Amino acid sequence: MKKIAVVTGASSGIGYEFAIQLDRDESFDEMWLIARRKEKLEELAAKLKTPAKVVPLDLCKMESFDEFKTLLETEKPDIKVLVNCSGFGKFGSYKDIAVPDALSMIDLNSRAPVALTEYSLPFMSEGARILQVASIAGFHPIPYLNVYAATKVFLLNYSRALNYELRDRKITVTAVCPGWTKTPFFDVATENGTKKEVTKYTGMRTAEEMVTKALKCSRKGKDIAVLGLQNNGHRFLAKIVPYSAVMRIWDKIRK
Question: What is the pLDDT of residue 235?
Fold first, then answer.
């Protein structure tokens, strides 16, 4: 049975870096690369030593889940690592963000990881690992990033609960919670035509740093991966500071 890794959002940013590091540090018979942009996936596949299957799918569309399910049922692989990294966010108030964009955030950030995870689980065996790319935005509500943050709350809680449920199968789920990370995320997040909602990105880290931390935590079976003192401090304060105060602080920071 073919042992594979599946990486969504592999065309750029954190997903791209996951593919690079998994190829470098772990061993698979094949890697499945999933994103919308076929040409970007093909460029990545050419850089990997692991044979790669390019799977161009738009995970905002329901039919993509059927295609993925059919591919699994046809090839019957042994999925050793699943990385759900597809997602996007937009800065702005409720009136700045079009309803279709808000709904697409929910689809890509929340529904897609659930669909790919649930379809993958029958093809996973003992020792398999799932990494769900959430965000430190999932620790509390964030005004002017409200839908994006809400999707990450969902993904964080889903991941941690699923990790508990899968204990008997010895499959682990790690919720990866990046803070500000230098990726093309910001190109989309700030394209509403209004001024940027955030002008200072303190504690910016690289995708390479975040992925290294995430994979280290995953290999240790941890249910959450947070990089750096600032982000871990953020996580701690979110537990003890009232949400109303956190939202006021965020509002001041973004201005």
Answer: 67
From the list 179, 80, 73, 88, the residue with the least C-alpha distance to 131 is: 80
Q: Give the pLDDT confidence score for residue 74 in this predicted structure.
A: 97
CA separation for the pair 237, 231 (Å, rounded): 10
Q: Higher model confidence: residue 251 or residue 181?
A: 251
Task: Return the structure tokens found at 149.
Answer: 């943050």
For 211-217, the CB contacts below 8 A with 24+ separation are 211/14, 211/17, 211/18, 211/20, 211/21, 212/21, 214/18, 214/131, 214/133, 214/174, 214/176, 215/18, 215/21, 215/22, 215/25, 215/131, 217/174, 217/176
H-only helix segments in the chain: 13-25, 38-47, 62-75, 99-106, 112-120, 146-165, 185-189, 207-219, 229-240, 243-254
How many beta carbons lie within 10 A of that of residue 93, not counting itself?
13
Q: What are phi and psi of 61, to 5 degrees?
A: -110, 130
- The model's pTM is 0.87
Which range is least confidently modeled, 18-22, 40-44, 230-234? 230-234
